[in-house]
Amino acid sequence: MFKKLLLPAILLFCLSLSASAQQADTLSITLENVKYAYPVKYFPIHTEGQDIKMAYMDIAPLQNANGRTVVLFHGKNFGGYYWTNVIKALTSRGFRVVVPDQIGFGKSSKPFIHYSFHQLARWNKALLDTLGIQKANILGHSMGGMLATRFALMYPQTTEKLLLENPIGLEDYRAFVPYATTEEQYKTELKATAESIKKYYQSSYFTVWKPEYDELVRIAAGVTFSSDYARWAKVAAMTFTMIYEQPVVYEFQNITVPTVLFIGKEDKTIVGKGLLSPQQQALHGQYKLLGKQIAARIPNAKLIEFDGSGHIPHLEVPTEFTVALLGGL
């Protein structure tokens, strides 16, 4: 009799533990339960009949303020949380640092709207205007590099320097990646798991995996447990379409502001890589070549390359990146 009572109790306890574990891993799609290193504020926006909000951090210099500002644009699979070491390096050297989570990402709203780099750039300009910032250095990583490029093209008078860290969009993906509709990409996004996300990060972002990178996976995978994950996945698909359909590669020669490219030479990122065969993948995404090609097309651009680094030099080779960034500024 005791055994009969004990078995259901043990089963109930195990189920309770499992539910608790899942609850601990569950993140809201606006990352309310992700702690950012600095206070987060919100910039209100009205667009397409919707009231939405853009999250951002505005961090004052720690000492010896130099009157200059650096704005950090994150990549597609990230938010302001992965810039912490860069923020610390900049604020300790006297820079004010502004770190937006773009609409559709991080702690910002996830609306169903038409996503465009032009619109994102305009919202960032409006944010800087509100903060009283007339001129800023714009550092964009990955997708943030495409946005930073568009921002510099639209607002050269606001852009002191354009700083591109392994930007995507150095190729026209439409030329070799098969077209996928937003709906098809949405179905792909819905299949994401912690395992598939970690495998992608390991194969695409870093040359050697380190335990601290698991936090990036925890955040990216945590939202998949959310009851609102379908909205996250739909927005992710919509921004994938934005990247695919709105290339900047043909406009680099039109940039008129001082530009520095920071390139991890082992990067082989291709947007839509999973739609290509291994043979096709080998022909594209070669940043050790692309960095040189694009630097040659931007008037008076400076190229800084990092050996032993993949897609995210500011995390993989932080000391080298920080020294190069401060030198570039």
Biggest β-sheet description: 8 strands, mixed
Poorly predicted runs of 5 or more residues: 1-24
Question: For the terminal residues, how far apart are their CA atoms?
Answer: 75 Å
CATH class value of the domain at 37-180 and 246-328: Alpha Beta
Number of helices: 12
**Mean of pLDDT:** 93
What is the H-and-E element order?
HEEEHEHEHEHHHHEHHEHH
- CATH topological fold name of the domain at 37-180 and 246-328: Rossmann fold
Strand content of the residues, in percent?
15-25%
What is the name of the CATH superfamily of the domain at 37-180 and 246-328?
Alpha/Beta hydrolase fold, catalytic domain
Give the structural class: alpha/beta
Q: What would the principal axes of the Cα set say about the shape?
A: globular
Quaternary status of these chains? single chain
Q: What radius of gyration results from the CA coordinates?
A: 21 Å
CATH architecture of the domain at 37-180 and 246-328: 3-Layer(aba) Sandwich
Please report the total strand number as a whole number.
8
Helix content: 40-55%
What topology, given as strand order, has the largest sheet? 1-2-4-3-5-6-7-8
